[in-house]
């Protein structure tokens, strides 16, 4: 029995009945209040869920708005950079650094050619053996192998074994000491070659003519002499054709005198000579160094207002140095004649400096 029951049992009957009624009324009121509280709590929870849903919709709308802005930004960026697609912009400094050279497209001459193997030789009309006029003993040596000498320069000093009088060996012309066979203190015979001096300002390009081509090669024809990949070239004319066939190789000989003031050509160097047997003029001719393949197309890089773009072209006849262009390049357009591979690399990898299609 609880405290309330004990209290009620001690009261008079009428008073006990009144208390019971009041107690019942208070209990009912408490239950309604609790129900109202629970209902209010559920209502608050529902309102909170609805509010959260509305907030979620607002957040979702904000997110959609941000995504839309992002897409619009992407579209704007694509618009800004679309004009650079397939175009490379280069500053003059970068062009110089990469050895990129340009020229205006124009007419040229193509040569129908026969290619002959050959070798660089001394110009034997400018080679001298230096010998003593008298038998003598070598007293001094004043020039060595590969020394540049001038006409009249003393190469060695000797003393005659008969008269004991000194005499000198002198260079007959300007040139290079290409061989010497002399020792200090030795006695040499008159007429014994002690030095070889060669004037290398010109050399001979001796070309071998196969029998099938002998009827095509004549004196005076134009020849392009080439030493190999990225080496020097020289265009000259055939100055001599041997009247006999070499009995060992069964080939003929054609000779071109090559200017060598820059020292690019060395005796013993293997070469090839492209002999022009006919000529054709074309309205647009480009060097082979300008042409390359890009995305399975034959192209040259043409300079436009936006930069350099790979321009597909159709080639016609070609020779050892050039191609005729049938279409794709017009006279007067500026294009890259040397090192277009640098521009191809730029388009392939994205950029030299990290900005696609744009190099400062």
Largest sheet: 6 strands, antiparallel, barrel
Tally of extended strands? 22
Summing up helix and strand content along with how strands pair, one would put the structural category as: alpha+beta
How do the helices and strands follow one another from N- to C-terminus? HHHEEEEEEEEEEEEEEEEEEEEEEH
Q: Return residue spans where pLDDT drops below 50 for at least 5 consecutive residues.
A: 1-11, 27-83, 351-360
Helix content: 25-40%
Task: Tell me the overall shape.
Answer: elongated
Number of helices: 4
Residues in β-strands, percent: 35-45%
Termini separation comes to 99 Å
Strand order across the largest sheet: 2-11-14-13-12-15
Over all CA atoms, what is the radius of gyration? 49 Å
Mean pLDDT: 81
Secondary structure topology:
Layout: H1 3-9, H2 13-81, H3 92-97, E1 101-104, E2 108-122, E3 127-130, E4 136-141, E5 148-149, E6 154-160, E7 166-170, E8 175-180, E9 187-188, E10 195-198, E11 202-209, E12 222-226, E13 233-241, E14 252-259, E15 270-282, E16 285-287, E17 292-294, E18 297-303, E19 308-312, E20 314-318, E21 322-327, E22 334-338, H4 341-349
Antiparallel strand pairs: 1-22, 2-11, 2-15, 3-10, 4-6, 4-9, 5-8, 6-7, 8-10, 11-14, 12-13, 12-15, 13-14, 16-21, 17-18, 18-19, 20-21
Describe this structure in words.
The chain has helices at 3-9, 13-81, 92-97, 341-349, and strands spanning 101-104, 108-122, 127-130, 136-141, 148-149, 154-160, 166-170, 175-180, 187-188, 195-198, 202-209, 222-226, 233-241, 252-259, 270-282, 285-287, 292-294, 297-303, 308-312, 314-318, 322-327, 334-338. Helices cover 25% and strands 37% of the residues. The model is unreliable at 1-11, 27-83 and 351-360 (pLDDT under 50). The protein starts with a helix and ends in an 11-residue tail after the last helix. It is α+β, with helices and mostly antiparallel strands.
């Amino acid at each position: 029995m609880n405290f309330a029951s004990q209290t009620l049992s001690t009261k008079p009957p009428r008073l006990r009945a009144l208390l019971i009624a009041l107690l019942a009324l208070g209990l009912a009121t408490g239950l309604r209040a609790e129900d109202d509280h629970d209902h209010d709590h559920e209502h608050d929870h529902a309102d909170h869920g609805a509010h959260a849903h509305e907030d979620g919709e607002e957040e979702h709308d904000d997110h959609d708005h941000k995504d839309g802005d992002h897409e619009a930004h992407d579209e704007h960026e694509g618009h800004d950079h679309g004009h650079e697609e397939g175009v490379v912009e280069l500053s003059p400094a970068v062009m110089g650094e990469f050895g990129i050279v340009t020229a205006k497209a124009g007419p040229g001459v193509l040569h129908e050619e026969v290619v002959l193997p050959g070798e660089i030789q001394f110009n034997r009309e400018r080679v001298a053996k230096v010998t003593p006029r008298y038998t003598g003993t070598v007293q001094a040596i004043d020039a060595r192998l590969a020394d540049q000498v001038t006409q009249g320069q003393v190469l060695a000093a000797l003393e005659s074994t008969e008269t004991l009088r000194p005499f000198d060996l002198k260079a007959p012309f300007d040139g290079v000491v290409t061989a010497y066979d002399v020792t200090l203190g030795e006695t040499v015979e008159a007429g014994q070659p002690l030095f070889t001096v060669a004037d290398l300002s010109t050399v001979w390009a001796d070309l071998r003519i196969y029998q099938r081509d002998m009827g095509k090669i004549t004196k005076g024809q134009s020849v392009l002499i080439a030493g190999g990949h990225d080496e020097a070239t020289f265009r000259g004319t055939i100055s001599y054709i041997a009247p006999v066939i070499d009995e060992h190789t069964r080939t003929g000989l054609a000779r071109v005198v090559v200017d060598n003031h820059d020292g690019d050509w060395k005796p013993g160097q293997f070469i090839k000579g492209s002999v022009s047997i006919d000529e054709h003029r074309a309205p647009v001719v480009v060097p082979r160094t300008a042409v390359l393949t890009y995305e399975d197309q034959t192209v040259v890089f043409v300079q436009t207002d936006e930069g350099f773009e790979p321009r597909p072209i159709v080639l016609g006849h070609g020779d050892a140095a050039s191609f005729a262009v049938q279409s794709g390049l017009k006279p007067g357009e500026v294009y890259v004649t040397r090192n277009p591979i640098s521009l191809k690399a730029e388009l392939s990898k994205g950029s030299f400096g990290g900005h696609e299609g744009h190099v400062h």
